[in-house]
Amino acid sequence: MQYCAQLMGRDKDQPAICGKILKADWTGAFFEVSNSTNKFLIGVKGYVVKETQRSFELMNEKGEIKRVLKQGTVIEISVVLLDEQRKVRIWLDNLMQRSHMRTKQKFKEKEGKLDLF
């Protein structure tokens, strides 16, 4: 959460915030699966230990590694924006590429990529 706060700084512009979140390095981030085409993944939460082009590997509180496919999955993370804790919902279909390639990509503002609530 502190990494996200540093990454976004004092930015108020939602498209800029969304671009920064989508380009972020996810290793070590904590998130929870809020929706998925695979219903067994809903509710899975943990820290990202590995990211591939098509999946994340999470370590849960029991120390188990769970693989979460990006396609058809929505996650939620907590971030601090302007001294206020908010949740961000991210459609992982938008992250279907290698992480080092994603940092170079320019994201266009589209509906359904990311929700701040």
Could you explain the architecture of this structure?
With 117 residues, the chain is of the alpha+beta class. The protein has a single domain, classed as SH3 type barrels (Roll). The protein is 18% helix and 38% strand. The protein has 3 helices and 7 strands, in the order H-H-E-E-E-E-E-E-H-E. It has helices at residues 2-8, 14-23, 99-102; strands spanning 30-36, 45-51, 55-59, 65-69, 73-81, 84-91, 114-116. It has a 7-stranded antiparallel beta sheet, covered by helices on one side. A hairpin with an 8-residue loop joins strand 1 (30-36) and strand 2. It starts with a helix and ends with a strand. The relative contact order is 0.21.
Strand and helix layout:
Elements: H1 2-8, H2 14-23, E1 30-36, E2 45-51, E3 55-59, E4 65-69, E5 73-81, E6 84-91, H3 99-102, E7 114-116
Strand ordering within the main sheet: 4-3-2-1-5-6-7
CATH level 1 class label: Mainly Beta
Low-confidence stretches: none
Give me the CATH architecture, please: Roll
Quick structural summary:
Helices cover 18% and strands 38% of the residues.
